[in-house]
Structure formats: C-alpha cells, structure tokens
C-alpha cells in the first residue's frame, strides 16, 4: 500500500542516514562586459588557460560568455568556498576595464555579429564544439545563446537510495532503484518546478537591443531609455523569447522511466526539422550546422531539469546513462541572482536541497502527455505572468492560484525542513523556508518584483543597474581572500589545461569530416 505524506515523513525520520552528505555542484554563467556596459570583444583571457580542458573556468556559447564550474561538494560552506575562489581568481585576472555581468539577460549588444563564437583550438573535438555553436547561431540567433543562467547539480546519498524501495513500495534495488527514483524526482520537478522561476526568477526586463528588431507577441512596457518589461513576468530568460526552441515543442520526451527517456531522446536526435533542412549543412565549404535534425547533439535539448551521469571519453550523455544509470540531476531553471556577487545565495541552495529531497520522497505517478503539456503550460504562465493575482495553475487535475499552491507546498516543505535540520543539528532549512515561503502570498518579495521595482523607481535602465552592480561586485570579489584554493592552484590548473589541450590536438588521427562521421556513428549506438 502506498504511503501518504505523513507516513513518508515518519519513515524518513526513522532513517536519518538518508540525508548524510548531499552532493552539490554549481555552474554559473556570466558575460564579460566593458566599462561602458557593452559586450567585450576580446578573446577568452589567457590567464584562464584552455577553455576546452580547464576544470573550473571555461566558456559556453561565446568567447565572452564565461562558465565557472565547482567541484562536487558535500557541504554548502565548501560549495560556496569553491565558488568564491573561482570568482576571485577570475576578477583578479580580468582586464581592468572588464566586469562580470550580474544578470541573466544580456547587456547592450549592437548586432548579432558582435557575439564571437567560443573557440576551442585545432583539435577535432574543439572544432566540433565551435561548429555546434555555429549551428545554434544559425538556428536561434546569437542573442538567445548569450543568456546566462545558474545550473545546480544535486545528488542524494547512497543511504537514501538504499531506503527508496521501502519508501515507495518498490522491489527495485541498487542502481535500478536510484535511476527510477531520480526519474520520479524529475517528474515531480516538472509538476512543481514552476516554483523556482516564481521565487527566484530575476529577468522581468530586458534591454531592447536583445530583440534586434524582431517582432514579438508580448505586450511590453517601457522604462528608462531602452528597457522593456512585462509587469508580472518572473523570468523572460525561460520564456518563448529566451532559451527555448519551437522546433522542440513536439518532441514528446517521456520521463516515466530511464528507458523511455533514452528512447525518446534517441528519436529526437534522428528527427528531421524542415526549417533546419531548408537551411542546409554547409555554405561556401564551411559547416553552418552539424546536421539538420531537431537536435544537432543531445546538449541542444532545452529542459528545466536533466538526468546526468559523468561521461567517459568518447561517450555521449545517453550512452553514459544507459551503461551506468542516473548519477545526479541538473537544475537549469535558475536565473542569475543579481542581488549577490556569485549569482546564487546559500539560502537558494538550502531551498533547492529541501525542495529536491521532497520531490524524491513523495509519490510521483507517471506523466501522461496531457499532464506533461499541462505542466509545460504552468511553467510558461509563471515565467511570463507569475505575479499576476489572476493566475491559476492546474496540477494533477486540481486548480489553485499561486498562493493556494504555495500554502499547500509550504506545509509539506516545513515538515521536511524540520526533518533535515534535525539531522544537520541546525536550522538552515527552516530558516530558508522562513525567508522564502512568504513570497507566495506576497509576490512583491520575489526576486523579479524586487529587480523590476528597482529599475522603475530609479527611472533608469537594467543596463545601468547591471553595470553598477558589476562594478560593485568586482571590488568585493577582488578584496575577498581565497578559502580553499590559492593563486598557485589556479596557475597549475591553467598549465594543465594548456598541456591537455595540446595532447588532444596531437592525438588526432582523422580529418575533421571523418571525425564527425565517426562521432555520429558512435552516437547511434546509444
């Protein structure tokens, strides 16, 4: 018989080992901007080593779009020490006239061509990474690709999975239980993950240059000299205007089991997209996209949450998952937090730990395509008008307004917080709930409302606000100490990354065209 919520809480309270040492990692994206608030046109700083192989500092879509990656940490303090150290090294080694952009939506960019694609050297894999980005530029435009976010990687301890079968009334054990449990977590995140942009979305306004003259159906309002906004929006980054793809809207990715997920991703990888076929593969002898499928490679699948497994060399994400199951999940729906120098706070991480543990612990029925579409509609509504008092959301056949769903969710998370705090012997989770939960009844306390009010009350622009914050945070980051690493540690990371890139380049035996054929033939084996 399935356990109700109180029975699950009781069971977990009898197994406190289930909450020892969550695994956590952060990937924070940020643009390099000049002191006039415009996108930097210089290449990836040499002080950072190789963007292809550096373990902590790389680039995403563009040369100017940095990505900072922490190691896995089992304590929140350790996680933020890593993140602080990376930021400190990065700003100390930035050119004096450059800053880290503290917002998700880009700074002022004059034209699409002002965005230089990320470069990864002369190796086949390096050329493929740049060619993939060329495809993204041609498919969606460069502006969409330089939107920044924060990705949160999270894993539950082995002891949780040892108890998962009894908690959920399943006979599965070992890796099978773990993979099934993570898929259940993902389904619940799809149902309730709208709370993340509602609470933490911080991109209700954008610089008008982002549109590059494109028409939009959004009824934008104006403020300052060049800022447009939606009055109730939480995260335009996650809207149809931002990091999405209409070509992917009918992929029907299935999250009911790992096998069904991998099968639907595999189908998506081989599904042709008429608009991309019309574009062609090459132009003047140069690749303009890797192929004309809906997804060039798996990384192009836009999702708010992903199942993950550390990949081996020459292994695709799906091959890693098929071979060894799910190891952790990646949350991709966090805006950069403009109110802090690192783009994310410890309080946000505490809430995420709590919320994700709840998602893994409560019942998670299979998702029909109809329910999946309803979840998607909820998410879309929240990112564009989440603070609208008239908004209602339908979940599992029940309809409530945001405050109503917040009251229901808060009651369950409050009990989970007590449980986790008892094991930690502190109040970090209860304190996070105390500060965050009032936002459901008071949308003016959400990050999106706060940033929009700050822009409008100053009668300024998000660009000027972003630049002022960037300059303020650069000073703070320069002045702070190292916590775990040192300057010599980063010097060593830099040198190792350069040497590793050269090894990869020297080891290439195939020409680039043959390498791509070999890569995609291998990918079909997933």
What's the helix and strand layout?
Blueprint: H1 5-13, E1 23-34, E2 57-59, E3 65-69, H2 76-92, E4 98-100, H3 124-140, H4 142-145, E5 150-155, H5 158-168, H6 174-192, H7 195-200, E6 205-207, E7 221-223, E8 227-229, H8 258-269, H9 274-279, E9 282-283, E10 286-287, E11 305-308, H10 317-324, E12 328-334, H11 346-361, H12 369-385, E13 392-395, E14 398-401, H13 402-424, H14 428-436, H15 447-457, H16 462-479, H17 487-507, H18 512-523
Antiparallel strand pairs: 1-3, 1-4, 1-5, 2-3, 5-12, 6-8, 7-8, 9-10, 11-12, 13-14
Helix pairs in contact: 1-13, 2-16, 5-6, 6-11, 11-13, 11-14, 13-14
Would you kindly provide a written description of the structure presented here, covering whatever features stand out?
With 526 residues, the protein is of the alpha+beta class. The protein has one domain: Creatine Kinase, Chain A, domain 2. The protein has helices at residues 5-13, 76-92, 124-140, 142-145, 158-168, 174-192, 195-200, 258-269, 274-279, 317-324, 346-361, 369-385, 402-424, 428-436, 447-457, 462-479, 487-507, 512-523; strands spanning 23-34, 57-59, 65-69, 98-100, 150-155, 205-207, 221-223, 227-229, 282-283, 286-287, 305-308, 328-334, 392-395, 398-401. Strands 1, 2, 3, 4, 5, 11 and 12 form a 7-stranded antiparallel beta sheet that branches. Strands 6-8-7 form a 3-stranded antiparallel beta sheet, covered by helices on one side. Strands 9-10 form a two-stranded antiparallel sheet. The chain is globular, with a radius of gyration of 23 Å.
């Amino acid at each position: 018989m399935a356990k109700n919520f109180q029975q699950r809480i009781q069971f977990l309270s009898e197994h406190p080992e289930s909450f020892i040492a969550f695994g956590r990692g952060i990937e924070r994206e940020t643009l390099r901007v000049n002191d006039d608030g415009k996108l930097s046109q210089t290449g990836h700083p040499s002080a950072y080593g190789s963007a292809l192989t550096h373990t902590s500092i790389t680039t995403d879509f563009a040369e100017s779009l940095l990505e900072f990656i922490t190691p896995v940490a089992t304590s929140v303090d350790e996680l933020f020490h890593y993140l602080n150290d990376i930021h400190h090294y990065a700003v100390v080694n930035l050119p004096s006239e450059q800053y880290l952009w503290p917002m998700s939506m880009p700074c002022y960019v004059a034209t699409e061509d002002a965005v230089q694609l990320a470069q990864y050297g002369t190796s086949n894999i390096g050329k493929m990474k740049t060619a993939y980005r060329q495809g993204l530029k041609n498919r969606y435009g460069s502006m969409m690709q330089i939107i920044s976010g924060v990705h949160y990687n999270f894993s539950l301890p082995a002891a949780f999975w040892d108890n998962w079968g009894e908690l959920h009334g399943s006979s599965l054990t070992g890796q099978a239980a773990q993979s099934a449990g993570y898929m259940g977590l993902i389904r619940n995140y799809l149902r309730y993950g709208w709370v993340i942009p509602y609470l933490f979305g911080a991109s209700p306004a954008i610089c008008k240059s982002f549109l590059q003259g494109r028409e939009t159906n959004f009824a934008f309002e104006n403020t300052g000299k060049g800022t447009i906004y939606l009055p109730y929006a939480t995260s335009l980054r996650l809207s149809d205007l931002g990091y999405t793809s209409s070509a992917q809207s009918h992929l029907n990715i299935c999250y009911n089991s790992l096998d069904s997920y991998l099968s639907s991703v595999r189908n998506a990888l081989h599904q042709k997209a008429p608009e991309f076929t019309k574009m062609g593969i090459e132009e003047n002898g140069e690749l303009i996209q890797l192929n004309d499928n809906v997804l060039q490679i798996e990384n192009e699948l836009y999702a708010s949450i992903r199942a993950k497994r550390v990949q081996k060399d020459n292994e695709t994400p799906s091959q890693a998952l098929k071979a060894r199951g799910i190891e952790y999940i990646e949350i991709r729906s966090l805006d950069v937090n403009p109110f802090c120098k690192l783009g994310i706070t410890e309080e946000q991480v505490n809430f995420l730990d709590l919320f994700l543990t709840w998602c893994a612990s409560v019942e998670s029925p299979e998702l029909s395509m109809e329910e999946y579409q309803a979840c998607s509609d909820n998410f879309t509504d929240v990112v564009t008008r989440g603070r609208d008092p008239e908004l209602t959301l339908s979940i599992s056949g029940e309809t409530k307004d945001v405050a109503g769903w917040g009251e229901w969710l808060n009651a369950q998370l409050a009990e989970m917080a007590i449980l986790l705090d008892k094991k930690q012997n502190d109040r970090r989770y209860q304190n996070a709930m105390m500060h965050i939960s009032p936002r459901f009844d008071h949308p003016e306390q959400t990050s999106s409302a706060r940033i929009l009010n700050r822009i409008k009350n100053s009668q300024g622009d998000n660009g000027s606000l972003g630049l002022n914050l960037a300059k303020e945070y650069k000073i703070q980051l320069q002045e702070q100490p190292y916590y775990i690493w040192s300057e010599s540690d980063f010097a060593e990371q830099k040198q190792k990354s350069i040497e590793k890139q050269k090894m990869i380049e020297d080891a290439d035996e195939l020409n680039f065209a043959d390498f791509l054929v070999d890569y995609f033939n291998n990918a079909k084996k997933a």
